[in-house]
């Protein structure tokens, strides 16, 4: 417990100190890196300690009496509301006030009247918590380290913005702390408290530069997240008032009879969908791209958006065969497909990453909504790999932007010659996201099997189509990086040491994770899925009477969906890929004639320009294919937003009516 | 296996009047079915073995001809189709014409005619295939490498100098 | 690995190029006859590929050749998994990875035709991948396994259960065999739009590697097509062979009837066919399964 308390509270303390170090100095850099390292070490220690000393199968519970903490939380919540109010008045966005009040006032009411007070423990640690602590702790801390160097460069390039880097770094730490709290809370009110902190924090971070665009986007993020918060609150009120429970683990006891808990589950799922930027709410995440890169990395990869899918994965045992499950899986599947098509049409590197994030989160959401242990297995795997790979991608795009002043994929042409180190990291990232021996694709494969087993035909279709378009946008990006433009010099990248210290470990982790895949699976993920679904096994058996499903749920069979033999084959493939750069030396040692690239005979001799009709050299410009006429944002975004909004409203109505009155 | 079993050709139109091109293209249409002999009209120098060049070389396209020739992998043969490609033909004294194909790249077979007759063309290709096989044999033994266009230009300069010198000598004599 | 699967892999590794050359030789002759020509010699594709490997090796940059070789290696590798009786999905994923290397090789050249070719190849992959994945799903739904050695142990030919998948897969084969549309990344037709696009900057052995990979790939795709017919009865191999020959013939026919299909049409029709033929069949199968 003390370690966990440290994990949650220490970032807040660190944030408090860093906040007052307004000037960029060696001491501040040192302080940030030290705090990040402390957090990182603590999270690893926490995980190891739990593995060695605790039996996590049922989860360890802590803190049953928390009167003082509750009071503190209530007052902080009140302060947050005031903060939102002040910002709303300052920028004349009054609608935000309503949403904020709708979420916070019931919380305060429940707190002060003592209705929600409970003797059940507020904190629960099980396998999923440990996984999340590791993800958030490692990736999040590395992002904080990266931020130190990044924000210095950022203000160097953008002198027009006021330097509030102390405030920025402090917010990152607050975020980290809130996230740690969120993933370890079992009590719904506590979770809601941390949930609101992340919402407000992201709002402040997105609006960091205070430009008009940033402010607009930050308020969009705020209202969407607060709306989700209202959904969360509704679930709490229902749980406390009607079902007389306060904790998620109590809610999960309804797994054998999910129709009883349909209302809170739907409301919590709704909150999670907003947080994970699923389709009708994808806007806030795209808007968040105006923020400095560490924000995007933190928001997209490690924390904010993962909070949503984390909650969904937790609730997954309640989803199988219910309307809530259908709602979540349809929205998730559709988001996966639509966002991957949209990602084809954008050229801004961060925007591609944003769409890809939305798309991948959609897949995790779909896996959670599917409500099968196998699908949850895939979902957790996706979550881990996505966090590592995507944050690495964000950081390398950010580093590239600081080196060249552009983050457009078009401008990454020939990166392999100009910035070989960054290109190498990005290659690992893109391979990691898109092709098979690497993590994401393997998890996707498991998800596909789970979807087929669960009988959700539409999910299978979404996955098949979506993974085809996913490949398109990743590989065309990779192709840009791989274009060798002759005669261009190697540039010195201005990537700081602190940035490399974040990027390199992540790249290593991304590769190592692929190798120890079966190990993660058998050590943490399978135990978790077995336990989480132990309550609902009976349901699978009675309603399905299918042997396959039973063996999956009971976990005696290979839950991992992918056999050991396949893992060996993939290991061989991975090794072959690693050998490639070495082979290159050998292949190139054989002398052969170099020829010019074919440009109809008009190549001027450097593969970069050709002779025009006046006999003068003209640079060739090779652009990627964005197919905007086919799936452009203008064509696709609005219809998909409409479609998902209508669907969401219908499902919410159905479930609310069904949940409240039956 | 002889390389001539699969000759892929590339057709380039220099400053031809298109008469020869029509003949060349006609010979590669399905009507005459050159695929019988494994011939494919590739349109890409990298895949080609035979370079069919029509028309004279002018000052604008000389680099193009050189580049295309250089991009072809060994063994390769060059066919100058039509009288213009052989030595400039009726355009020979034009201000912009340098001369036949052999002013920029080494030519293996000259097929005269205005326009080149299909029979002559086929005859030329047959000759070219023989040369191709010979080159391939030599190449396998490591005895042969075709000149690059730059080397050819160099050698042309030398022979020109020699010819000039010879001319001088003759005069002296 | 059993003796059978080892033998199958060895036969695949050694004889695929010959068999594939034979198939495409017949195909070229049939196509020629449809156009009222005599056509090339039967083993013409074989002559072509041998010639390519005997030519001089040239390259544009340092990484082009290694990428093509990786493409060839992984293409052969994925076929080997298939004939060893491995997981169909893994085979398809490995094949995708092989394709990625070829595309990267084309991108690395930094020239217009190669790059357009690479992008068209990506589009082409996007068009056919859903169907290939769905085919694997179909096998799983009708036999309960993704493994080839278990899939072929059925009583009835799978085509009876999955006609929709079969139609969709045959449709994809036309693209996969680089027949139609004519403006694809590197179409087999004499007058291509993109000067061979994707492989436009490969020459000699480099191009040979990509052609060789294609031969292996063709055998792999035909093998998957064969899965629709092979049952536990050994005689079914004969039926599968006849079916494959018929498929090849139909492909030539379709290609000659619609010689000027463009990529826009491909993308739309491929996805529609996938959705209707594959999707319908998928729905029916998964309900039967329940």
Relevant terms:
heterotrimer; A: 662 residues; mainly alpha; two-stranded antiparallel sheet; two-stranded antiparallel ribbon; globular; C: 290 residues; 11 helices; 1% strand
Characterize the structure shown.
The complex is a heterotrimer of chains A (662), B (173) and C (290). Helices cover 73% and strands 2% of the residues of chain A. Chain A has helices at 2-19, 26-53, 67-90, 95-113, 127-157, 165-184, 188-206, 212-243, 248-252, 262-275, 283-287, 293-302, 304-315, 323-344, 349-370, 373-404, 415-418, 420-434, 439-454, 457-482, 497-515, 517-532, 537-544, 547-554, 564-589, 628-631, 633-661; strands spanning 60-62, 123-125, 593-594, 609-611, 617-619. Chain A starts with a helix and ends with a helix. The model of chain A is unreliable at 538-558 (pLDDT under 50). The model of chain B has no long low-confidence stretch (mean pLDDT 85). In chain B, the strands form 2 sheets. Chain B has a 5-stranded parallel β-sheet. Chain B has one domain: 3-Layer(aba) Sandwich (Rossmann fold). By secondary structure, chain B is of the alpha/beta class. In chain B, helix 1 (19-27) links the parallel strand 1 (8-13) and strand 2 (40-41). Helices cover 41% and strands 15% of the residues of chain B. By secondary structure, chain C is mainly alpha-helical. Chain C is built from 11 helices and 1 strand. Chain C starts with a helix and ends with a helix. Classes of the chains: A mainly alpha (662), B alpha/beta (173), C mainly alpha (290). The interface between A and C is large, with 66 and 68 residues.
